[in-house]
């Protein structure tokens, strides 16, 4: 089935469609015309359009990957762990989930989750992926794995043979890879930004090593690539729908996997693409990843629902975006670039991502802030800023729900609530239920992100997009810390510094923020579920 967009009840002004046609956007995009996003974006766009060629240029890596997978299998190395953040892990996660192939994705600094990934070391190969080669989470995980392999008795050469590296040419990681004797290094096309890299080595290497037929993925994309210069092609239609909905006031995009679709977890990938590409200069499209098309939290009249892999649902307005995964990647990248032009922003930069990172680095240097709780109820410590606790009676036994309701009522018109959980995605998976539970209590859009993963995705929108968010940060006690070898911080400190750094970035903008710290993670999550149910 080819890539197609089915719109139900979405009226796109003819003027927008005819303007894009008159400007010859489809053909100019395929010709990599860097002027499409205005003069300020031109120099960046000139080095960020390589993703259009990937369905063809990535072919060269497929045979090499098959050989490498066979080589690893012959040595009994059949468990693949991927260390990478944002664009360096989100695509392989959806590729492997969709193919039903196991891949351990490590995009966290949670000490428990990182420790748990260091299991079955005798059959493990670690893919370290970072375009910049300088991402602290990924580098810390790499260090932890080296020390775990050493503790398991492997010598330096044997340890190097357990690593496969994906990075850009000339990055610090490419040098590290050579120094540590990594088994293989894949250098990606530097003219492709992280969130547009699904069909590059970043998407393909871990997926192929885990057992996915990545050649088929490229075939799926190539079929769409051949049509992208045509006016009225379906990816252009998707871009027009996103941009048209934005102009009509629907600046939140709810994303759900179709119930009849084989594609699993597409929203988690598209979330980064859309949030980082569009959320800047006080504008943007907020992606809201839903558990299913009828999940709560996206009913408001500022939301457009898009279902991936099935036709449009009955609800209006909505989009159904059908087609295989390889085409979905390319189609949504193209549509996001088109929407970027409609919004009048540069879809290839992420100007506000560094802010929380800089705060984190400063906190790592100066020490964690002392932040005494306003109250402690059961397994939950309550802290707040930006007026989130104004008027809340924290002595009440239901102080937690009062604080949550105060936060919800602090959401401005056309605003949203972002739940940000710096927890273990496996052991504390119950935190994921908070999104729907909170969404039932408000008509506003509610998003959920695991920290620090969302910092590389919706984090850009939170800071650079419209300042209409309210924020719930959830952190948890660390029972068993894990050192980061040869660094002067451990994982627990890094995780806490990331949470504190992001709190500071949001507080500096005066955003309402409620911080709940769980002194017992399981009990605290159960308590939250109870008070919200
Ligand atoms: O691949 P890396 O260089 O490690 O970058 C991982 C992520 O880091 C940053 O947060 C960027 O904003 C993301 O777009 C990127 O995907």
TrEMBL record:
SUPFAM superfamilies: SIS domain (SSF53697). Keywords: Gluconeogenesis, Glycolysis, Isomerase. The keyword Nucleotide-binding does not apply. It comes from the Bacteria. PROSITE patterns: P_GLUCOSE_ISOMERASE_3. Signal peptide: none annotated. InterPro entries: G6P_Isomerase (IPR001672), SIS_dom_sf (IPR046348). It catalyses: alpha-D-glucose 6-phosphate = beta-D-fructose 6-phosphate. Pfam families: PGI (PF00342). One of its GO terms (molecular function) is isomerase activity. Pathway: Carbohydrate degradation; glycolysis; D-glyceraldehyde 3-phosphate and glycerone phosphate from D-glucose: step 2/4. Its EC number is 5.3.1.9. Belongs to the GPI family. This is Glucose-6-phosphate isomerase.
